[in-house]
Amino acid sequence: MVAMSDAHVVQQAMPLDSAGLLEWPSREPFYLPIGREVDLFEAAYRHRLPVLLKGPTGCGKTRFVRAMAWRLHRPLVTVACHDDLSANDLTGRFLVHGGETVWQDGPLTAAVRAGAICYLDEVVEARQDTVVAIHPLADDRRLLPLDKRGELLAAHPEFQLVVSYNPGYQNLMKELKPSTRQRFVTIAFDFPPRDIEVAIICQETGVERPVAVNLAKLAERVRRLRDRGLVEVASTRLLVHAGCLIAAGVEPRDACEAAIAGPLSDDPELQAAIMDLVAMTLP
Ligand code: ADP
User: Fold this and answer.
1) What average pLDDT does range 222-242 have in this prediction?
2) Ligand 1 centre and the CA of 61: distance in Å?
3) pTM
4) What pLDDT, in 10s, does the model give residues 3-24?
5) Of all protein residues, whose CA lies closest to atom 6 belonging to ligand 1?
6) Looking at the structure, do residues 214 and 177 belong to the same domain, yes or no?
7) Ligand 1: distance of its center to the CA of 240 in Å?
8) Are both 36 and 168 inside the same structural domain?
């Protein structure tokens, strides 16, 4: 397939296989609410207000969106944003297919047409011009400009836009512009309190409760190392990984080294500090 420039295209009405971009979870995703995020999301969805999920990596944002898609009976389209992501990557392009030029919907266009929930993960990583391209979709116009087709696509009534960002990564070059932020209802996420985190670890990994309690206590201690230069602290995701290794028979300290200390830092001193906490916390 060859991407074609505007000058060569013959516009086609039918999108090419955009259905493949939509995900319908086959069973209800396991999600334990931490606060009032489910009610807030449902209220925003009722008014089709775009939602921004703000919080550290690995604290449940993606799982939450999947659970909400299930709850609201909507398909889900997920895009992991990166600094090369262009507006065309989101909206679509013309392709030469079997000797014909056909339009292929990008993931955002597929979601807008189908009335899906479109989740732009780590939106702050995307190029500014890409982010600005979603502005008309993220206010009450609910329109997606398809520049290559010379069209403005009106969003399906059920379409919902959700973006996430991690304020921890924030720097001067990578901040959401106020004109973008103010289009979104913001739901703030953080790591769950201990009892909820323990329940998540048990459910996700199958370890016994005392093991999960120790992992949650370890996370609390590691999270205090933020002041000592740890950029990202132990997320629920890392605890789940450690729990999976333990459930698979790995010795708990080795599991924590592989799943927590290793991913968090390359600095030998910080790794040693984390392993000291492991030794203090795990029997
Ligand atoms: P994020 O999108 O914030 O980076 P994820 O949603 O991918 O994080 O969460 C990472 C993992 O942590 C999930 O795969 C899941 O195992 C677990 N998790 C975190 N929070 C929850 C929660 N509230 N309920 C159920 N699982 C959770």
Assistant:
1) 89
2) 6
3) 0.91
4) 333 333 333 334 445 667 899 8
5) 60
6) no
7) 9
8) yes
Residues 155 and 176 in one domain: yes
150, 57: one domain: yes
Which residue owns the Cα nearest ligand 1 atom 23?
32
With 90 as the cut, is the pLDDT of residue 181 above it? no
Q: Compute, in angstroms, the gap from residue 59 CA to the centroid of ligand 1.
A: 5
Structural domain boundaries, residue 63: 4-188
267: how many CB neighbours lie within 10 A of its CB? 11
For the four alpha carbons of 147, 150, 155 and 159, in that order, the dihedral sign comes to negative
- Same structural domain, 89 and 112: yes
CATH number, domain containing residue 8:
3.40.50.300
| Angle between the N-to-C axes of helices 209-223 and 268-281, in degrees from 0 to 180, rounded to the nearest 10 | 140
What's the mean pLDDT in 56-81? Answer: 96
Which of 27, 37, 62, 63 for mutating ligand 1's site (highest number of atoms within 8 Å of CB)? 63
What's the CA-to-centroid distance between 63 and ligand 1, angstroms? 5
Number of H helices, E strands in the chain: 12, 9
Residue 96 tokens read as: 């030469």
Residue to probe by mutation, ligand 1, list 78, 191, 237, most atoms within 8 Å of CB: 237
pLDDT confidence tier of residue 113, bands split at 50, 70 and 90: very high
Pocket test for ligand 1, best of 236, 238, 240, 244 (most atoms within 8 A of CB): 236
Q: Is 162 within 8 Å of 138 (Cβ atoms)?
A: no
What are the two backbone dihedrals, phi and then psi, of residue 53, each rounded to the nearest 5 degrees? -100, 120
Q: Which of 143, 165, 188 is the last residue of a domain?
A: 188
Q: What is residue 156's DSSP assignment?
A: P
Q: What's the confidence (pLDDT) of residue 115?
A: 95
State in Å: Cα 30 to ligand 1 middle: 9
